[in-house]
Amino acid sequence: MSATSPNGTSTYHDRSITPPQWRPLSDAANSPDTNPPMRPINWNAITDAKDLEVWLRLTSNFWLPEKVPLSNDLPVWRTLPEAEKDLTIRVFTGLTLLDTVQASVGEISQIPDARTEHEQAVYANIAFMQAVHARSYSSVFSTMCSTPEITAAYEWAVANPKLQARADAVMGHYAGTDPLKRKVASTLLSSLLLYAGFYLPLHFSARGVMMNTADMIRLILRDKAVHGYYSGYKFQRGLDAHPERVAEMEDFTFTFIDELLRLEFDYTDELYDGFNLIRGVRSFVYYNANKALMNLGYPAIYEEQAADVEPDIIAALTPDSSETHDFFSGSGSAYVIGRAEATENSDWEF
Ligand SMILES: [Fe+2]
């Protein structure tokens, strides 16, 4: 839906008029004769009610890994077979890579395409939260692992072509020139690409293993549901403004999701080799591929492949069975943010 100005012309813009479009006037190649005046964001004049709704959801979902008592998982961690520990560390290093890409590039890359200034602020908020996610896995490492184990896992991630290929596939669109393709890439990363990794802590959780780590993963999943929903929603609004691209973008999305699924399974087959979990992982990835498609406004086409997703994995997603794992489900985890009190001068006397 485009906003319409009093003279009847559409105020929709692929490129917003606020700071991302500012160019140094000395930059002859890129610069207009003058920059438009910069407009301060006005949260009292909302163009798209979804921006405020999502902002409020994001801020009410805010959490930090420092508040999750991960060390309570240490006794169980020490009893895990070495192979399961190695798998866990690799899974979390892979998740760290994708959240790093999303925090530093994926969310930020959508800011210049924003339709409203509020949308820009929402991506800034999401980018920060992606950085929190990327940091949260490091909290698991620092709690459970030795420095040499952590170093080895990061070397593995950097040297693993299958892991890198998944990040490369989305980076190509983040660095590209097409705002709609960027949104599809971002939605598919948040709603599909990480789920082969999330499967493992949910599988553990369903067996009563690493329960605090699973609580943290549920907080990440709760955020991801909003992130994927929002990029998908903005993709649909962008497509509304470009009806001539409907067929092209549908074709692009289905081709791209097929490519990402292939890359995801390439990676998964190697990662989970020897663990007898591949079938469950694949079903779970397809289950989330359907959610990604729905976020983008397309029909879920992987019902058959997702049919085998294990009930205990779905239950692990939703510890309270009255809740469902989606954007509108409210708080999906037991995390409660601490109560704050105002600081006094005496607090600063050390
Ligand atoms: Fe994330």
Automatic annotation (TrEMBL):
Record field: transmembrane: none
Enzyme class: oxidoreductase
The protein's required cofactors: Fe cation
Gene Ontology molecular-function annotations: metal ion binding; ribonucleoside-diphosphate reductase activity, thioredoxin disulfide as acceptor
Polar residues: compositionally biased ranges: 1-11
SUPFAM superfamilies: Ferritin-like (SSF47240)
Keyword ATP-binding: no
Gene Ontology biological process terms from the UniProt entry: deoxyribonucleotide biosynthetic process
Renumbered residue ranges of the record's region Disordered: 1-38
A Pfam family reported for this protein in Swiss-Prot or TrEMBL: Ribonuc_red_sm
Keywords annotated in UniProt: Deoxyribonucleotide synthesis, Iron, Metal-binding, Oxidoreductase
EC number: 1.17.4.1
GO cellular component, one term: ribonucleoside-diphosphate reductase complex
Swiss-Prot/TrEMBL catalytic activity: a 2'-deoxyribonucleoside 5'-diphosphate + [thioredoxin]-disulfide + H2O = a ribonucleoside 5'-diphosphate + [thioredoxin]-dithiol
UniProt record similarity statement: Belongs to the ribonucleoside diphosphate reductase small chain family.
Complexes and interactors: Tetramer of two alpha and two beta subunits.
Protein's UniProt name: ribonucleoside-diphosphate reductase
